[in-house]
Amino acid sequence: MQQLLNNLPPLAWNFLLAAIAVLAGLLITKIISFFVRKACSRTTGFSLLRSVLQKLGRPVSLFLPLLILDQILPFMKVDPVVYNFLNKTTDVLLIIAFAAVFMGIIKVLEDYAYHHFKLDDDIHDLKERKIRTQLVFIRKVINVLIIILTVCAILLSFESMRKIGAGLLTSVGIGGVIIGFAAQRSLGNLFAGLQIAFTQPIRIDDSIVVEGESGLVEEITLTYVVLNIWDQRRLILPINYFIEKPFQNHTRKSTELLGTVFLYLDYTAPVDEIRKEFTRLMETSPLWDRRAAAIHVTNNTENTMELRALISAADGSKAFELRCYIREHLLNFINKHYPDCLPRTRATVEGEIKPPGTGQEIPVSGLAATAPSR
């Protein structure tokens, strides 16, 4: 066997070593994956090992074969020029694979933090969203730094790039000023993102109203914020918008909201009966969180009185549905039992009228005519 290996052509020998390196790396990865899966099968719910397997599986399956190939390269039978090319290519790929592994580790830590602070009750929902917003932003900043350091490590591995880097360092003073002016807007966005991540004017899943649109904060990046509008449109805003301009945040302190339903009825409307029906509707609705429920006459005009029904719900979507439910059923109740209490316009006619074909005048002073207003 030793003699057979020694008599192999250089090309076949090199392919054999490369295949051994790749297969050995993949085999080690499969063995580790098998034992990790076996350990994960014994646990239910969140498992750190399962997160490691999901987030680090592919990066490690790339990193290990490259690492073994880098160690086997000196045993290959190649020309020095070809060896230097292969060695440099392997080093570059190894740096990239190591960066991918490090990004995977960051994702594992983020996943662990998510589940460590995962709380199912609504009381702790704000704390969870606050931490999630900070973790997402920190992960993105770290990923950018990893990419920058990876590019720097690749460039510094080439001798020609080192000379260019040394030349740039000698002019760092002037270059820093120029770069600072050129990138001041990008840096402003970065600092705005840091401010948002830690001062928390908005968080992921916050219900906000901005530019006349209402929706949920879906994503916060280093440069922009994505707002998911109720009709599934996406509103994209620069991140510094939320530092410089006013907006409404309906879930700043809690997800609970109050809502109102306005009814405009005739003065003869029986408020007590409508209040009883309103109370019955609220008691039977699963959308009500039982914090607030009241109906009052809040205003009046020369023709109508204004009834305001106050409702409360656990979040914005439930509050909207509950308002529609109360409005619809109260109107049905009034139409069915008190149709004459809908808004009406009254008029008083004074004077005399002559029926057609007669010369007799009929006095109509004080005669009142009513007609429903539309």
Q: Can you walk me through this structure?
A:
By secondary structure, the protein is an alpha+beta fold. The protein has 4 domains: 2-174, no CATH class; 195-249, SH3 type barrels (Roll); 257-342, 2-Layer Sandwich (Alpha-Beta Plaits); 346-374, no CATH class. 56% of the residues lie in helices and 19% in strands. The protein has 11 helices and 12 strands. Helix 2 runs antiparallel to helix 3 (48-72), helix 3 runs antiparallel to helix 4 and helix 10 (271-284) crosses helix 11 (316-337). The model is unreliable at 119-124, 165-175 and 364-374 (pLDDT under 50).
What integer value in Å does the Rg equal?
36 Å
Q: What's the main sheet like?
A: 5 strands, antiparallel
Order of helices and strands: HHHHHHHHEEEEHEEHEEHEEEE
Q: Give the averaged pLDDT, no decimals.
A: 77
Order of strands, main sheet, comes to: 4-3-2-1-5
Shape: elongated
How many distinct domains? 4
Structural class: alpha+beta
> Terminal Cα separation, in Å?
102 Å
Multimer state? single chain
* Helix count, DSSP H or I runs of 4 or more residues: 11
Beta content comes to 15-25%
Contiguous uncertain segments of 5+ residues: 119-124, 165-175, 364-374
The level of helicity is: 55-70%
Strand runs, count? 12
Short summary of the structure?
This protein is α+β, with helices and mostly antiparallel strands. The chain has eleven helices and twelve strands.
Characteristic key phrases:
three-stranded antiparallel sheet, alpha+beta, disordered C terminus, 374 residues, 4 domains, SH3 type barrels, 56% helix, Alpha-Beta Plaits, 11 helices
